[in-house]
Task: structure prediction
Amino acid sequence: MTKFQVRNKLRKAGSKAKSIALETLSIGQANVGQDTFRLGIRKASMNFMPTCFPKVLSIYRLGATVMGLGTVSAVLALGVLSPSASFAATIVNTELVLSVDVSGSVDTSEFNLQRQGYVNAFRDPGIQNTIAALPGGIAATLSYWSSSAAQSVPWTLITNAAQANAFADAIAATSRPFSGATGIGNAINFASNLIATNDFDGNRKVIDVSGDGSENVSSNTFLQTARNNAVNAGITINGLPILNDERNLDTFYTNNVIGGPGSFVIAANNFSDFENAVTQKIGREVALPPDETVPEPFTILGSLTAGGIGLALRRKRQQQEKEAAKV
Result:
């Protein structure tokens, strides 16, 4: 795991974890007794610690036993311990945003072909088996876009065939929210925000953009800036251009839309070819690269916990030295 991914995990969960911890501990007095602090740590741990990391609780208890802190020290130590996304978010292999064009150039029949393509892709046994083999599975959502964008299927955890079928059913139940111009830059900005604000933490973050036209809401510079901002945030953008009206749209996507590690374009010759193309594309997006290893959350947590306990002990020692100096 890269330093950027670690920082992103901490930033994503920090605020939420601290809020939960402080509320649970009900810290409002000048000092907190050791027994109260231990109890608060256990409650806070159960509130935002996933059940898949039972060893974490013993580490928190160890930290609480060692510490015996006053309010300020307790808050500071908990601030170091708590922000890990291992506590506040569900860890998955991939966060995937399906970003689908519903601009005016897409008629009702073509919209239905796109929607059904995504439905059938998630019902595909090969894709379901690939997802089931991923440690943590994936988290996926669907957004429709034209001039603006809207989330039409909420973030969904998919780890097995049943959940993949349920996600497919949710896509099938969506209706077209609007129609308008082709704002790919707006779509990317919207999808990036969906990733930044969800309750999942993926080793890979992917935006899957499909569409049948080039940017006409803003400039290509705006689009490239949206793409670059997403890539700088650790997101990979892949493209599925539909060459129905613009035969060189795949080149436009390559130059202006896709970006990030392993990004790629798979083109559909027309809307009738969309299902085949999107099945290939999603299959490739959810497949675990041969050289990728899933981050071990406990390793990250161990370093954070050790650092937190160390900080707490230093603060306690400093306080004891100050009290001894007064005597």
User: Anything to note?
Assistant: The two ends are 49 Å apart (CA to CA). Residues 15-87, 294-300, 302-307, 309-313 have pLDDT under 50 and may be disordered. The chain is about 55% helix and 15% strand. The longest helix spans residues 297-326.
